[in-house]
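Most newcomers find our protein records easier to grasp once they have seen one. Read left to right, the backbone structure tokens trace the chain's path through space. Once this layout is familiar, the rest of the handout is easier to follow. The record below serves as our worked example for the rest of this section:


***
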Amino acid sequence: MKRLRLTIQLLFTIVTNGYLYGFLNGKIYRGSLKYACVPGLNCYSCPGAVASCPIGALQALLNQRGFQVPFAALGFFFLFGSLLGRFVCG
């Protein structure tokens, strides 16, 4: 079971932080996938990050002028939290 968990964690890390060009040149990926959040913590400013972190997206939305409730980011948390539970944190 531990081996399966480690394999899944490594695959997810490679998929979400697999922008090798960014690591080699120190450039942040700015493609269209940055608008998508991935379940789990993934820093937006990491050179290898292909998508965004949901906590960072929520923080950016709550920090804007003219406060509006960020339903998309909150919905993301509720959806993945209710479907996957602690699996996202593992």
Summary: Helices lie at 2-16, 20-25, 54-62, 71-84. The chain has a mean pLDDT of 81. The chain has one domain: 2-88. Residues 2-88 form one domain.
